[in-house]
Amino acid sequence: MGRLVAKYAPAALVAALLVATALAFVYTEKLKLTLSPILGTRVDKVFSPVCDCETDTAAISFRLRKRDWVTVDVIDRNGDSIRALVRNESTPRGRTTLRWDGRDEQGAVVSEGSYRPRVHLARERRTIVLPNPIRVDVTPPRIELVSLSPRSFSPDGDARRERITARYRVDEPARALLYVEGVQRVRKRGQRQAGEIEWYGKVAGKPMPPGVYAISLGARDTAGNLGPRTREKDVLIRYVALGRDRIETVAGSRFAVLVVSDAARVTWRLGKRTGLARPGTLRIRAPFQPGRYVLTVTANGFSDRAAVVVRAPKP
After folding, report:
1. Where are the alpha helices (DSSP H) in 83-158?
2. Angle at the Cα of 182 (from 178 to 183), degrees rounded to 5?
3. Can you state the percent helix, strand and coil of the chain, rounding each to 5?
4. Is 72 exposed, middle or buried (CB count within 10 Å of its CB: 0-12, 13-18, 19+)?
5. What is the C-alpha separation between 178 and 219, in angstroms, rounded?
6. pLDDT per position as a tens digit, 129-176
7. In this structure, what DSSP letter does residue 277 have?
8. pLDDT digit string (tens) for 198-253?
9. CA distance 55 to 49
10. For residues 307 and 246, is the Cβ–Cβ distance under 8 A?
11. What residue ranges define each of the domains in the chain, with the CATH number in brackets?
12. 0.70 cut: is pTM over it?
């Protein structure tokens, strides 16, 4: 009898293995044909839990085919649970959206890296790791102001020196930001690591008054981290400027004053007389009547003034 068992034992083992393999194959094929209980997955790709911005949490969203008791946690690369977002909660059919704040069970911000959502369905007796990785990024970008030009301009609408251009470099893909007097005024489209950003000297569509303005750059990366600003550099908004604000001359004589402007032409008024001239040295004959007058020079709607004191000629 023992010899008989020994004779047929290998054949029985092979048969058992074949049966097990067949059953495993059938089960695998059945799983392939079975519809997933989860569909329509949407998961944010990257975020920063410390950015204090609209991307300081990650959305995890999916649809259930049937109501179930759901547990959702976030796992690291080793498959270890970092944070449970929902524990055995009755969840209806349809879309479910949860948010993860990038912290572990103790409330500490997790290390930078990739994490995945894991969903357990009690009724289905299935645990599914969503294929969508979530990258936690808490390192802010650093931007360098390469050049800024011109250092004086006039946003007066005559298409001459209407804007300043800042060239920059960033150490990671990020959106460049331009600040004027510490206030963000321009946000660059795209996230190129090198490029140019421009300011047209306007706020809410209106040209800024003449004066000196401090310009600096910053950058915000895809995760939402805002990097430190560069050192400020001054630019001058100047529409028209006179070289002197007080001119003393003799009645009937000619005097000169420097006119600085980016405009092609300027108009001037002194007393009842007016004229048209190019920027540069403006020469005008003084009134024949001694007294105090105001010289007004205008370029594209912006003006500068100087007091003109006309004295009687010496006898």
Report:
1. none
2. 65
3. 10, 50, 35
4. buried
5. 9
6. 999 999 999 999 999 999 999 999 999 999 999 999 999 999 999 999
7. E
8. 999 999 999 999 999 999 999 999 999 999 999 999 999 999 999 999 999 999 99
9. 8
10. yes
11. 37-136 (2.60.40.4070), 143-237 (2.60.40.10), 240-311 (2.60.40.2950)
12. yes
Give the number of other CB atoms < 10 A from CB of residue 186: 15
Cβ-proximal residues to 34 (8 Å cutoff; 6+ apart), any chain: none
- The number of CA neighbours under 13 Å toward the Cβ of 119 is 25
Question: For residues 155 and 263, is the Cβ–Cβ distance under 8 A?
Answer: no
> 312 is written with which tokens?
């009687």
Contacts of 43 (CB under 8 A, 6+ apart): 58, 59, 60, 61, 117, 130, 132, 134
Count each helix (H run) and each strand (E run) in the chain, helices first.
Answer: 1, 27
Q: Which two tokens stand for residue 269?
A: 């008024």
Alpha helices in 110-159 (DSSP H): none
